[in-house]
Amino acid sequence: MHVDVGNALAVEASPGVPEDALERLDDRVRDAHEHIVAGMTREEFGYAALNLPKTADPAAIERAVEPFADSEVLLNVGIGGSALGAATLVDALGGDLDAHFLDNVDPEHVTALLEDIDLSQTVVHVVSRSGTTAETLANFLVVRDAMEQAGVDWTERTFVTTGPEGNLRDLADEHDLPALDAPEGVPGRFSALSTVGLPAAALAGHDVEAILAGAREGRAALTGSLFDCPAYAYGATAYALDVRGAGINAMMPYAESLETFAEWFAQLWAESLGKDGLGQTPARALGATDQHSQLQLYRAGPRDKLVTLVRAREREDRGIPDTELEGLDYLAGGSLGDLLDAEFEATEASLAESGVPSVRVEIPRIDERSLGRLLYDFEAACVLAGELYGVETFTQPAVEWGKDAARGLLSGERGLPEKTELVVE
Ligand SMILES: O=P(O)(O)OC[C@H]1O[C@](O)(CO)[C@@H](O)[C@@H]1O
Question: How many other C-beta atoms lie within 10 A of the C-beta of residue 171?
């Protein structure tokens, strides 16, 4: 992927990063890179994610999905990193598979979905690294019941990806379900390029090996300097802007098929960096659509934002027909792609003209290799940013309080745990 930070420099933007500051920051990037490589070498928790291009086993994934290759529908039951990597790949790469990502417990949505799909033609992939996530297990129990009601043998149409212990592992063992192992030492939000995110892509007919080849390119590009490593350039610049006041990062891909990528980025960035009072808030946006929505705030609102503009350099195009409509001759004879590119560049210029920092990220096209590289590079950018912030990049303790309290509310046990008492109050 190509990263251009020119419009984030202090000569262009405020907040902006002075070039001499970027030079000094590169010394810290080099030290951080050494720490990252040491963590990767030791397969340390979290850093192991950056080894996935080497440790992921495409053949095992292909074998696991082969029995379900005739399925018309995929129901991926998982939440957070157990959904978003797979959804990003499938939404970006398309294909004939009717893929649904059940990653919430909205009863109306679940009921409508289960009534809409043919469960006899559906493969269910239940994904949970811990194997205990309430939303995932609740949804699985509902899906299993719906399959039984429909006279479908759920054990014939379900496979799981999970860790070594937990309810999901027990279920797989009890019913002899095909089970893939969640990658050891890899937090969910970093597991797109593994048995967590890749089965959905394989079921959709995409080339898992090509996705991993792109990720391997990203691994090879991890030099020790932000000046020749796109991932580090992005992670270091986003960090440098945050500490100078750009506390919000609007991820704005100019492709409908990358909208879910912005959602995946939001979890990766927020759950990894949001610690100890630090962290940059990801905002999900979409170009060109949000030029008619959030751009007003980005350009004329508080000077607290970085806008990350992402596009593919090549794409299929579609011509705009000639028109008799007055004043639209600037469109006639052109194409929707021309218009999208013009809007991308005009938005970038508009932000620069107003001094709002932006970073341009370009990938060659939206295919397996480019997606594998994009996901890997943003994971590496996030790991680097975590080193620069000095936070625990790979944990997410702040999400546990609410989980415990919710369980307490539901269990209704007397003498509710203190947290639940607080919720009840
Ligand atoms: O894969 P699991 O263990 O079900 O976790 C799902 C998601 O929940 C979290 O653990 C947060 O609660 C995320 O980090 C993770 O991606």
Answer: 21
Domain 50-206 has CATH 3.40.50.10860: no
pTM of this structure: 0.97
For the CA of 163, the nearest atom of ligand 1: 3
Tell me if 308 sits within 8 A of 242, measured CB to CB.
no
Q: 316-326 pLDDT, tens per residue?
A: 999 999 988 99
Distance 292 CA to ligand 1 centre (A): 34
pLDDT digits (tens, 9 = 90+) for 197-238: 999 999 999 999 999 999 999 999 999 999 999 999 999 999
Ligand 1: centre distance to CA 219 (Å): 25
Q: Which two tokens stand for residue 255?
A: 């492709």
Q: Chain-wide mean pLDDT for the chain?
A: 96
Q: Which residues are catalytic?
A: 271, 292, 403
Distance 130 CA to ligand 1 centre (A): 7
Q: Is 343 exposed, middle or buried (0-12, 13-18, 19+ CB in 10 A)?
A: middle
d(CA 119, CA 148): 10
Is the domain spanning 2-37+212-395 CATH 3.40.50.10490? The answer is yes
Residue 273 structure tokens: 């960096």
* Ligand 1 mutation target, pool 76, 84, 130, 196, most atoms within 8 A of CB: 130
Strands (E), 240-357: 248-253, 281-284, 305-312
- The DSSP string of 258-281 is GHHHHHHHHHHHHHHH--TT---E
- Ligand 1 atom 11: residue of nearest CA: 399
What is residue 80's DSSP assignment?
T
| C-alpha of residue 34 to centroid of ligand 1, in Å | 28
- Each domain of the chain, given as residue ranges in start order, spans 2-37+212-395, 50-206
Nearest CA to ligand 1 atom 12: 399
Task: Give the model confidence (pLDDT) of 1-47 as tens digits.
Answer: 999 999 999 999 999 999 999 999 999 999 999 999 999 999 999 99
Location of structure tokens 């970085």 = 306
